[in-house]
Amino acid sequence: MVYDPEQAAAVITQTQNWVRELVIGCNFCPFANREVKKNSIRYQVSGAVSLQVASDELLQECLLLDSEPAVSTTLLIFPAGFPVFRDYLDLVSVVEKMIYKKKYTGIYQLASFHPLYQFAGADLEDAANYTNRSVYPMLHLLREAEIEKALQQYPHPENIPERNISFAREKGTTYMKMLRDSCL
Q1: pLDDT tens for residues 89-145?
Q2: Radius of gyration of the chain, Cα coordinates, nearest whole angstrom
Q3: Cut 0.85: pTM above it
Q4: Which of 15, 138, 167, 184 has the smallest number of CB atoms closer than 10 Å to its CB?
Q5: What is the full DSSP assignment across 115-157?
Q6: What SS3 class is residue 46?
């Protein structure tokens, strides 16, 4: 599926709302605000619904990051693809293998977000899942060098996931769902 510019703009706006309200607003990523202020996040809407096309598109984003140092990170958004979480996990597995095969390991890192994200072993209704529940299925491609630089300036970065989980559980599933859904 190909998105016309108006449709793509709406998806990007909703994703930017999610970044602002959840990722930054809940401080799930203490580094995101800096990138938003620098306008260094690339939002790319994909019409892919197959693993191969989505993997090829992620490779194109790697190549773009190779040639565009002003872009810190890319969110590749799949509004029509991978609505089933298990299918999305298959996509994550395929693109992680592609990153390894194309020798991007250590250069780029992948983060995963999905509207039905569920941590292994977690209950479907666990509010902690909202730390990775987005408005659309998406792949987040990050430069590892920038992650390492940011982590050096953040005390105890290893505590970020647990802090995020505690925050989400404290707020509760109803609140976290309402906040995420308000971005649409």
Answers
A1: 999 999 999 999 999 999 999 999 999 999 999 999 999 999 999 999 999 999 999
A2: 16
A3: yes
A4: 184
A5: TT---TT--TT-GGGGGS--SS-EEEEEEHHHHHHHHHTSS-G
A6: coil
